[in-house]
Amino acid sequence: MPDQRIREHPVASAEWLRAAGHARWLSLVTLVWLGVESTLGLAAGFGAHSVALIGWGLSALVEALASLIVVWRFTGARTLSETAEHRARRAVAVSFWLLAPYLVLHVGHDLDAGHRAEVSLLGIVVTAVSLVSMPVLGVLKRRLGVRLASGATAGEGTQNIICGATAAGVLAGLWLNTAGLWWVDPIVALALAVVAVREGIRAWRGHVCCH
After folding, report:
1. pLDDT digits 0-9 by tens, 74-93
2. For 49, how many CA atoms within 13 A lie in the half-sphere containing its CB?
3. I want to staple 103 with a disulfide (CB 3.0 to 4.6 A). Which of 54, 76, 86, 193 is the partner?
């Protein structure tokens, strides 16, 4: 099972060290893109009063935190440290939980204020790009997570896959809003909060599901 393989002690071979370097490099690339994605996503979300789009932009910041954690994990002497892996896996789990409370509160505020999401061309473009790119990055990182026995790397990959899935949800919400189905947007935001809590629990316990 993938969960058992992730928990196995890695062999510090040349191949393993190359895989660790690839994990660090992918995380750095992801970090740069997430900075762009978050900035554009938040700008589009606030401009369109879209709770789901704002939540998605914020989730990019959470993913960026996970990327930073993996870079930290595979830098210097920490590369071969089981303690560093344990701390990194727990830190990635916590990063999953940072998003949920904000989403719930923001949905409640917007519903109370009567805000309705508007169509955002910028939001559509940014989420469409992530819909294509993030699942690819996520799958690559999850495979590296298995090879490295690194729950932190696999957890970051899971966040990338969730990002792609929620991008699809946000796109659907923006499109359905044009048909008057405004309630889809806050539902997508709340679903994102539930998924984040669930994946955080699984990451904390060391159970990273295979997507």
Report:
1. 998 888 888 888 888 888 88
2. 12
3. 193
